[in-house]
Amino acid sequence: xxxxxxxxxxxxxxxxxxxxxxxxxxxxxxxxxxxxxxxxxxxxxxxxxxxxxxxxxxxxxxxxxxxxxxxxxxxxxxxxxxxxxxxxxxxxxxxxxxxxxxxxxxxxxxxxxxxxxxxxxxxxxxxxxxxxxxxxxxxxxxxxxxxxxxxxxxxxxxxxxxxxxxxxxxxxxxxxxxxxxxxxxxxxxxxxxxxxxxxxxxxxxxxxxxxxxxxxxxxxxxxxxxxxxxxxxxxxxxxxxxxxxxxxxxxxxxxxxxxxxxxxxxxxxxxxxxxxxxxxxxxxxxxxxxxxxxxxxxxxxxxxxxxxxxxxxxxxxxxxxxxxxxxxxxxxxxxxxxxxxxxxxxxxxxxxxxxxxxxxxxxxxxxxxxxxxxxxxxxxxxxxxxxxxxxxxxxxxxxxxxxxxxxxxxxxxxxxxxxxxxxxxxxxxxxxxxxxxxxxxxxxxxxxxxxxxxxxxxxxxxxxxxxxxxxxxxxxxxxxxxxxxxxxxxxxxxxxxxxxxxxx
Length: 504
Hints:
The protein has 14 helices and 26 strands. The protein has 504 residues and is an alpha/beta fold. The longest helix is centred in the first third of the chain and has 17 residues, at 35-51.
């Protein structure tokens, strides 16, 4: 189907609304919303924003969990030219205060009516009722400073990075990047109006905003909308909800599979009659988890590489194609990638180095943080990702680790992902995280944290013998620490810095 130029995120929605206003778009646990019903919410919020003198380039901070009102507010901000700045309501009071200072918003919204966490944050502010019952709002104590003139019409949102290895930053995400990625993501999945995608990933994160929401709007697909992931509820949605697309991080899949293994009577074949596409993102792809997911569902697990600074994926695997590796797939339209050495010189195919990217989805920078922007931008408009990667002979991209996470042990480079892959293949270990603990002499001790499958116990000596047969001596962990659960970001990434802090 040929679409008109849709260069603003609200135009994706308006195109679908005009095409079929009565089509069901959002399925929540309590009711279903058509495009027309969401359009009504968008109209009301647009009036409210204008009544509060919101102008293009103003930031609107949204303390939220997934709900129809949050989606409507994102679209209303786009209509008036404001930048939506989503923050997951489950973050701490201190984190919210940090993001408030970073965003310098005109208004602050809370999804108070559907999220106890948002309501708790709202009590810290002087709020008033919104035109929508699920929302409350607060006016900023200080006038918001105007945005940079050349960015006002380009930016759709600010996505705050998770800060897994350092301070959080506000990524400026463009309308062009999001609308382009909506199309690329939808096409990579053959997504269409008959599809239903599972949408628990927060719309405050690029995964939820781009891969889930924008792709569904582009394709006219529906969303089964949830505030958080519950394996029992997800299993029920797979069995009875008409779910065709499932996307999420590694942690989502391990929780779902662990639930099934511990609850399914007689381990009967899992029910997912309408499912046709599964995708794992937001973290590195572990081969043992990939195999486990593929055995569970019976068809290939797709994977890609993306980051907030690029408004979506730079590469993605080919749909319906079985791969016996952990590739992040092939470059998507509009993106460019090179692999470079420490001096920024491009490396030949097959050699490992830092991954640099540029293209349609690249951010113009971090919001009001020129120093942080300068640290990652390189001549020629390249973004230095900090990820270590290589291309194989067929042009498939492999991301093998993070420069900041690389461990130096006895003069050798140890990539945590390599050790984690072996650990995750040990029976009873569902996922792992490997970190390096600095020693006085500058060397690093390798520490492995592991999370066990339900009702499992770890035999340390057995694991060590298992690793000795599969890893060089300098890659072997000095400690293996069992965890009940890992500290995670809301997008499912393991917070390794918090694991390191437990060692000090």
